[in-house]
Structures are given as structure tokens and as C-alpha cells.
């Protein structure tokens, strides 16, 4: 068991790489992952460098892009923007309160649309 933990820690370290798509600190869904198990974290070191770490949720778990955590119940949004009209706004199925959602899915991109999670405008609160 101890050996396994050491091995996992070692693997986590060698999988860390200098970021190519870290723009903010936090946990983010890996786009184009139909399993929705992959995500990455971005951390800042020395106040200037972003460090990206690729991670995967446990078996049967998915990365919830709204809560930024792995869970058993979240809906995979990877293909939500496929075959949608351009720049569509869609309800966030992972919003914590489904009667008053504070987040929505914004489809972005021109030829291959992809989903992002956006916050509702503060004035209205729900959207
Ligand atoms: C969800 O939002 C509605 C409308 O604002 C509110 O009445 C309700 O208490 C909220 N539910 C939870 C679980 O926060």
C-alpha cells in the first residue's frame, strides 16, 4: 500500500509539465474527453510560472466542470455543443440549484464548437 502511494506520487510529479493552456489557478475539465474523467490543475510557482498537472478522476467518477471536483453524478458536457447553432447558450445540467442556475454553458468556436461554463450576469443571478 505504501509502495503504491509512493508510486502514485511519483507518477503525479513526472506528469507535471510546464503549462501550455493554464491561464488561471484552479481545476479544469480536459476538453475533447468523452469519458469526462480527465482534468488538469493549474498552480502558480514563484509568482510567475503556471504549472499544469494532468489528472484523472477515480473509476466511475467524472469531473464536474461546474464544481471543479470529481463526483459520481455530474453530467458530461463534452458533446453538448456538437450540432448546435453557433454561440448557443445552454442550461448547465450541473448547476447546484436547477430552479435558479448561477451558471450556463456557452458554446464557443467556429467550426468545432466546444462548451465552457460561464457565470450568469450578477444583476439577474439566475439564468
Ligand atoms: C433554489 O433557488 C430558488 C429560487 O431562488 C430558491 O427558492 C431555493 O431555495 C433554492 N434551493 C436551494 C436548494 O438552494
Automatic annotation (TrEMBL):
Keywords: Signal
Superkingdom classification of source: Eukaryota
Signal peptide (residue range): 1-19
Lineage: Eukaryota, Metazoa, Ecdysozoa, Arthropoda, Hexapoda
Chitin-binding type-2 domain ranges (all copies): 19-78
Protein name: Chitin-binding type-2 domain-containing protein
Gene Ontology molecular-function annotations: chitin binding
Cellular component aspect of the GO annotation: extracellular region
Keyword Signal found: yes
InterPro entries in UniProt: Chitin-bd_dom
Amino acid at each position: 500500500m505504501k509502495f503504491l502511494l509512493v508510486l502514485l506520487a511519483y507518477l503525479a510529479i513526472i506528469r507535471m509539465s510546464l503549462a501550455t493552456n493554464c491561464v488561471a489557478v484552479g481545476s479544469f475539465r480536459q476538453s475533447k474527453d468523452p469519458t469526462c474523467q480527465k482534468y488538469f490543475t493549474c498552480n502558480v510557482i514563484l509568482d510567475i510560472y503556471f504549472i499544469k498537472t494532468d489528472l484523472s478522476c477515480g473509476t466511475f467518477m467524472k469531473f464536474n466542470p461546474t464544481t471543479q471536483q470529481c463526483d459520481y453524478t455530474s453530467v458530461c458536457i463534452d458533446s453538448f455543443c456538437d450540432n448546435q447553432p453557433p454561440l448557443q447558450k445552454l442550461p448547465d445540467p450541473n448547476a447546484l440549484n436547477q430552479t435558479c442556475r448561477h451558471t450556463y454553458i456557452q458554446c464557443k468556436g467556429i467550426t468545432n464548437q466546444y462548451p465552457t461554463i460561464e457565470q450568469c450576469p450578477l444583476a439577474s443571478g439566475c439564468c
